[in-house]
Design a protein that fits this description.
Shape: globular
Strand order of the largest sheet: 2-1-3-4
Number of domains: 1
Strand content: 5-15%
Protein name: DUF3783 domain-containing protein
Largest sheet: 4 strands, mixed
Amino acid sequence: MESPVLLIYHMQQPRQSALEAVCAAMKIRSVIVSDGDGRVPVGLLTRSENPIRVIREAERRGAHEGVIDEEMIIMAGFDDALLTSFLSTLREQGLLIALKAIETDENRYWNGEMLQEELKKERASFRGR
């Protein structure tokens, strides 16, 4: 199984530091994705040993203009036990994040902007809008 990775989008301090501390304690590699890097494919970030290099390469190619405007996390490589424990810890620490996704075979080719749009649509449908 691949080692667990958490992509973190549009999170401000002190919440970002608190989330990174949870990740460190649970041996989850956290990757902070800046707001302007929303068009970098999720799978490139979760599978790279050097996600910063992936982001810089996307910037060089002009593929980094996607805008993320709400907190979002994407989990990759989490087994069921880790997922349950991680989400419980977030709740216990008051780190509520509305937009959450697990990387799948389908969405790993999406970028953060596309995934955020899909999560917002799902949230709206759950709310009956």
